[in-house]
Amino acid sequence: MEKGVIGVDIGGTNTVIGIFNHDLELLEKVSIPTLKPNFPEKTSNPKEFFNLIASEINILAERNGYKNNISCIGMGVPGKVNPNIGIVIRAVNLGYEDVPFASEMEKRLGVPVFIDNDVRVYTRGEALAGSGKGSKNLICLTLGTGMAAGVMINGQMVTGSDFYAGELGHDPVEGVNYLCNCGKTGCLETIASASGISRLASEAIQSGEQTILKLADGTISSKDVYLACLQDDEAAIGIFNYVGKTLAYKLLTVTFLLNPETIVIGGGAAAAGKFILEPIQKVFKKHYSNNEFPNITIGSLGDSAGLIGSVHLAKSEYEKKK
Amino acid sequence: MEKGVIGVDIGGTNTVIGIFNHDLELLEKVSIPTLKPNFPEKTSNPKEFFNLIASEINILAERNGYKNNISCIGMGVPGKVNPNIGIVIRAVNLGYEDVPFASEMEKRLGVPVFIDNDVRVYTRGEALAGSGKGSKNLICLTLGTGMAAGVMINGQMVTGSDFYAGELGHDPVEGVNYLCNCGKTGCLETIASASGISRLASEAIQSGEQTILKLADGTISSKDVYLACLQDDEAAIGIFNYVGKTLAYKLLTVTFLLNPETIVIGGGAAAAGKFILEPIQKVFKKHYSNNEFPNITIGSLGDSAGLIGSVHLAKSEYEKKK
Prior knowledge:
Chain A is an alpha/beta fold. Chain A has 2 domains: 4-123 and 304-321, Nucleotidyltransferase, domain 5 (2-Layer Sandwich); 133-299, Nucleotidyltransferase, domain 5 (2-Layer Sandwich), CATH 3.30.420.40. Helices cover 36% and strands 22% of the residues of chain A. Chain A has a 5-stranded mixed β-sheet with strand order 3-2-1-4-8. Chain A has a 5-stranded mixed β-sheet with strand order 11-10-9-12-13, with helices on both faces. In chain A, strands 5-6-7 form a 3-stranded antiparallel β-sheet, with helices on one face. The model of chain A has no long low-confidence stretch (mean pLDDT 96). At the A-B interface, β10 and α6 of A face β10 and α6 of B.
């Protein structure tokens, strides 16, 4: 029997582990809590978490008939990652610093482990098995709590000079003054993210705009705004128009420079579909005269993009090293 | 004796041909007119020009002791180029369309010929032998009649999905309404280019701003504006501040996305040195907190970047194919 492949998608709260067959078809996935030190403590060796992941992988493998029959493991970690040496340099939301992730997992499991930044892993998923399938030059955005981008050029993921590539969420937007989690003001992610959309909706309500949106417990989600769009709520549609247009001008700059085949809009807020997509496409129609590229589209893998990307990462790196 | 290498830098008016030794040291260069059909005629086979280049190369080789002893030839062409198959798809200013440049030159000279877009060749020059030496991730701008960019990622030149990468000059700038040569309005190159600077200077004079700048024959060059900066002319300094700041915000977007080690400012207007560089660096200092990268600098090869890039292109492609 051909060996199985394990994918691990580490999130700020939960971690999803999936077992795939050799053809990268998902057999089963489980979710476990992401173990991390209490803020503001930091660790360079989250032993308990490593042990928990290893034990879950062994259970998954055995239950699916792959006991001692795994070829390799791929993992996506939210933070600054050096994929070449398998180290998590810094993962602020997890409290990890200089964690030799790959080697610690290899020690426990006896098979090669490959890691990368979660957004690059997500991008890899959409590029190889999702909306970007077949593209060699692709930009993928994740509009979640924050906002980040993955870039693939000639089929290779771009990590940047010191692993800071993809931080488009912190690019300043003229005229925007919201305080960002990073400490600066006016970052793109303060509006172009699920949290940004939520904030814009709260403001619209508080300023007395006519809308069916209502604050429940003082908050409103980007999904609520999307649902209001489906009922033709103009304030809600206006929020996605504004967010899409703002994103579009940043994506135009990127497109003029890199001429990608595909731009994938992913992350939680991408569930809004055409309400986020059409304002972007409209700006491109006006300003970008290359008719063929880029194809701007919503990610097709949803929540699974990270998990699927992690097994593609594992398999391609494993085959390179074989 | 080791073989020589020929570089050819084709410009809108003149073409420079250089002969280099095996170590890529320039031995001699000559300039010939760029032959092209009269506008609006077009050609897919500029035979006379090919014959002229071939004859000049043979003369150069013989005069420098390299008769029948050239290993390869590199050429930079201003237009849309497919370097993989050696074809100039479109060079609007030259009136060329679908010209099998590399194979036509190979037929005449009997050695491998490699071509690429002039800005990518220029970028290669600065990246391998100029200000960007040692960088694997680099952005290079050419501020000339127009404005374009070259991108190197992991040591590889980025061509884009259909060879349109680098067209940053046509990215729209909010609030700018000048008509661009491309037919659109507000393109970055309508201000961030030698011509753009010239236009801004003319406007400053015509609007009665206090300045030592004077219109000679109705025009003023970006060099004139630079010379006025050297005399502390506030209007001139203001023009470079505005151009630098506008460029900086576009470069910030690019930097957040790609995390390059080096950004090289090249082309004619880069002769302004610190007057164009410092406004860019100031914006980065304010908005980009990665202290190590990018190094933002003026190109060090000046006019020779294209010629030097073309021999580096030739040598590296030749060695790949050997």
